[in-house]
Write a structure and sequence with these properties.
This protein has 385 residues and is of the alpha+beta class. It folds into three domains: 108 residues, Butyryl-Coa Dehydrogenase, subunit A, domain 1 (Orthogonal Bundle); 109 residues, Beta Barrel (Butyryl-CoA Dehydrogenase, subunit A, domain 2); 154 residues, Butyryl-CoA Dehydrogenase, subunit A, domain 3 (Up-down Bundle), CATH 1.20.140.10. It is built from eleven helices and ten strands. The strands form three sheets. A four-stranded mixed sheet has the order 1-4-5-8. The protein has a four-stranded antiparallel sheet with strand order 2-3-7-6, covered by helices on one side. α1 runs antiparallel to α3.
């Protein structure tokens, strides 16, 4: 289908696809097997200005929006979700600075981020604070001109590799979620260390580590916004990024679908290619329908976000939920279409299926997304009665 992309958007799509085909596809199995961070791919993305795609031109970026970022993420995910997670998590970590940073903070950090010189990570999740962001235990205490951070963040993408971290910590325990604040912490800060690199089921090309703060002192100028705004920073950041997670689901679904179609044309049973069997055709037809429906929703929501709309929680939750559910379903069915071959590491769909699972979990589980959507439905019903 034609989604009426501008010439510039088509160029972004084509460039991201070229990088995916030339730089990611040849190494994705090795990156997965070795649990290896894709530094060479990141360098290529930086050299092509793709890292700074969503950063305003005044800070050295290309000044594009949610739709362009989703297009790029989709194409990278078509090749490898592990690599696209590394890329997308950089944007996730940058959004707090973009949305709530002072002009001085933006000038300090964004040019290096846009140039790909310094990667970013977002630190919200803890052992007892994932879906329940109000359960954060990491604290930040103001002492003179410094905040002292103490606590541990868990399962942080780009952990240990990124140079800049946007962290949510509690500055006033008595206020609960209203007592959370957001900070920028640099990797070289004394008292800031990392746990082991996690050994994951999927997205193994990305790095996932604990962030450990032990009497970690940062300048008070590293506060993003004002004290007590941390929960708002986190929620606005996730609202802005969740459509991109949906795009990851869309991309991996597209990649798996293409592999299944190619295999079904080549594999013969009972004297015929298996694509000639109606049962297989129906599976492929459902996959194609679901992919186009996901793309239509995700592109539409991305355009809505780019319009400057304020009420994006519900549509971004829809895009994330539907896109990632489609990603999981299509990759699973691609393995089924390919049978025993699909289960083998010789073919990429088994990796795609493993990678797809996390998309239904991170940046808010799809069950939590349905809660968000449900609460918005209740509010709308109350306003319209």
């Amino acid at each position: 289908m034609d989604y009426f992309l501008t010439e510039e958007q088509q160029m972004i799509r084509d460039l991201a696809r070229q990088i995916a085909e030339e730089k990611i596809v040849p190494v994705r199995a090795e990156l997965d097997e070795k649990n290896e961070y894709p530094w060479e791919v990141i360098k290529t993305l930086a050299q092509s200005d793709m890292i700074g795609l969503f950063i305003p031109e005044e800070y050295g970026g290309l000044g594009k929006g949610c739709l362009e970022l989703c297009i790029a993420v989709e194409e990278l995910s078509r090749a490898c979700v592990g690599v696209s997670t590394t890329y997308a998590a950089n944007a996730l970590g940058t959004y707090p600075i973009l949305l709530f940073g002072s002009d001085e903070q933006k000038k300090k950090y964004l040019p290096d981020i846009a140039a790909g010189k310094r990667l970013v990570a977002f630190g919200l999740t803890e052992a007892n604070a994932g879906s329940d962001a109000g359960g954060i235990q990491t604290t930040a205490k103001l002492e003179g001109n410094e905040y002292v951070l103490t606590g541990t963040k868990q399962w942080i993408t780009n952990g240990g590799e990124a140079e800049i971290y946007t962290i949510i910590a509690i500055t006033d325990k008595a206020k609960g979620p209203r007592g959370a604040s957001a900070f920028v912490v640099e990797k070289s800060t004394p008292g800031f260390t990392f746990g082991k690199k996690e050994n994951k089921m999927g997205i193994r090309a990305s790095s996932t580590r604990e962030l450990i703060f032990d009497n970690c002192r940062i300048p008070k100028e590293n506060l993003l916004g004002k004290e007590g705004m941390g929960f708002i920073v986190a929620m606005k950041t996730l609202d802005s990024s969740r459509t991109g997670v949906g795009a990851q689901g869309l991309g991996v679904a597209q990649g798996a679908y293409e592999e299944a179609v190619k295999f079904a044309r080549q594999r013969h049973q009972f004297g015929h290619p298996v694509i000639s069997f109606q049962a297989v055709q129906h599976m492929l037809a459902d996959m194609a329908i679901e992919i186009e429906a996901a793309r239509a929703l995700i592109y539409s929501v991305a355009r809505y976000v780019d319009s400057g709309a304020k009420d994006i929680s519900k549509p971004s939750a829809m895009a994330k939920t539907f896109g990632t559910d489609v990603g999981m379903k299509v990759t699973t069915n691609a393995v089924q279409v390919m049978g025993g071959s699909g289960y083998m590491k010789e073919y990429p769909v088994e990796k795609m299926m493993r990678d797809a699972k996390i998309l239904q979990i991170y940046e808010g589980t799809n069950q939590i997304q349905r809660n968000v959507i449900g609460q918005e439905i209740i509010k709308e019903a109350a306003r319209n009665k």
